[in-house]
Amino acid sequence: MIWYPYEQMKTMKPPYEIVDAAGVYLYTKEEDRMIDSISSWWSVIHGYKHPVLTKAVKDQADVFSHVMMGGLTHPAVRKLSDKLASWLPGDLDYCFFSDSGSVAVEVALKMAMQFNVNRKDPRKTVLSLTHAYHGDTFKTMEVGDDEDYHFAFESKRGVIHIPTEIPALEEAFEKHHRELNCFIVEPLLQGAGGMRMYGLDFLKRARQLCDQYDVLLIFDEVATGFGRTGYRFVADEVLPDILVLGKALTGGYIGHAVTVAGEKVYRGFYGDDPSLALMHGPTFMGNALACSVALASIELFEGQDYMAKIHRITEIMRRELADFSSPKVKEVRIMGGCVCLEVRDRKDLLGYQEFAAKRGVFARPFLNCLYAMPPYVIAEDELVEVISAMKAWFE
Ligand SMILES: *Cc1c(COP(=O)(O)O)cnc(C)c1O
After folding, report:
1. Which of 218, 220, 247 to mutate to test the pocket of ligand 1 (most atoms within 8 A of CB)?
2. Runs of H (alpha helix) within the chain
3. Which of 28, 86, 295, 392 has the fewest Cβ atoms within 10 angstroms?
């Protein structure tokens, strides 16, 4: 018996069984297919069954699928970390791999905490955003802020939440800078907290304040990385001290994530004293299949000018929604490869999944959000179909 995520098992509708998948399509039967408008939780950026990615997995599987990283290393993880070090901005060069985004965020927070312990300045408070989502493990729930996910666990010691407004940011630093360890954000786009979008000016000010008060800045780009906001990484615009990538890292092929530290953070652990070392090591970190497919995914992203594909997606979304309005819709938000229609009453989204499926689109609204984050390889007519389904729902 499968226990499904985020579901009341007694009342949940049976999920769609997928028997095949190719490009942007999920197949429930040989001929019955739906466009995946949300890229399997925002990860399948190149579409399904991409020949280059599938080949990368197969080729590596012919050599070996996994060896542990304790005492061992291998070409796939070395090539991927070299690639990330040269491809990511600034001095974000030190790659710590893990098996999921939540764990990679845990690692980032642990790094920040121990960085300060190592320099004998054990500040403990984490600053984060209201409506933040950073994963489902305990510390990520603490720094997160969404009662819909975490209402059953009330533990908020050592975390301060602020809205994405510069005055609130300045006030938090002024009041709490002596105890602040780090500031963690989903930059520009808060995903699971409700597809909330905000500006670069907030992040630029955050960078200044973190420098001024010697507080580490962590970007959780598990969702926003690899072009989703219209920037390759938001870290290209404002450089964090620690960057977390996940979801699209492997093109959605295998769960894997990475916590990338800059020079300053890495140096905080480096020395002759073993007690300064980072004590963490997921069993499947640096998995060879995951690293091989991640490298192939990055090469595709670079080689086929994915940023141009993403800008075209933004234009089509804007064009298709330019004249749209509905009394039920509070706001239409578009950024990069993401569109969200926020409804006033979340009950107005009940039944949308079935409605869209009948029109050949797979969608999964949550909170007040009817949204799409399609694979970047989506064709214009397919994207128009996705948005037409969204508009038709309100007619
Ligand atoms: C999905 C997500 C995570 C958690 O990643 P998992 O791989 O599901 O553990 C963390 N942070 C953000 C911003 C996410 O969107």
Report:
1. 247
2. 39-42, 51-63, 75-87, 101-118, 138-143, 147-150, 166-176, 200-213, 263-267, 288-303, 306-321, 352-358, 380-393
3. 86
- The pLDDT tens digits of the residues spanning 302-349 come to 999 999 999 999 999 999 999 999 999 999 999 999 999 999 999 999
What is the mean pLDDT of the segment spanning 277-290?
Answer: 97
In whole angstroms, what is the distance from residue 356 CA to residue 386 CA?
Answer: 8
Over the chain, what is the mean pLDDT? 96
Q: What average pLDDT score do residues 126-143 get?
A: 95
Mean pLDDT of all residues in 193-205: 98
Catalytic residue status for 270: no
* Cβ 133 under 6 angstroms from ligand 1: yes
Residues in the chain: 395
Give the pLDDT confidence score for residue 147 in this predicted structure: 64
47 lines ligand 1 (CB under 6 A): no
Instruction: Give the Cα-Cα-Cα angle 66, 69, 72 (nearest 5 degrees).
Output: 90
Question: Does residue 134's CB lie within 6 angstroms of at least one atom of ligand 1?
Answer: yes
Confidence of residue 148 (pLDDT cuts 50, 70, 90): low
Mean pLDDT of 350-373: 97
The tokens describing 294, both together, are: 């991640």
pTM over 0.90: yes
Encoding tokens for residue 275? Answer: 């007690």
**220 is annotated as an active-site residue:** yes
Q: How confident is the model at residue 152 (pLDDT cuts 50, 70, 90)?
A: very low
Catalytic pick among 6, 32, 124, 305: 6
187 ligand 1 Cβ < 6 A: no
Query: Is residue 26 a contact partner of residue 34, using CB atoms and an 8 Å limit?
Result: yes
Mean pLDDT of 46-71: 98
Which residues, listed in sequence order, are joined to residue 161 by a DSSP beta bridge?
A: 128
> Does the active-site annotation cover 247?
yes
Ligand 1 pocket, 192 CB below 6 A? yes
3-state class (DSSP) for residue 33: strand
Distance between CA 48 and CA 167 in Å, rounded?
44
Using a 6 Å cutoff on CB, does residue 142 contact ligand 1?
no
By most ligand atoms within 8 Å of CB, the mutation choice from 43, 45, 133, 371 for ligand 1 is 133
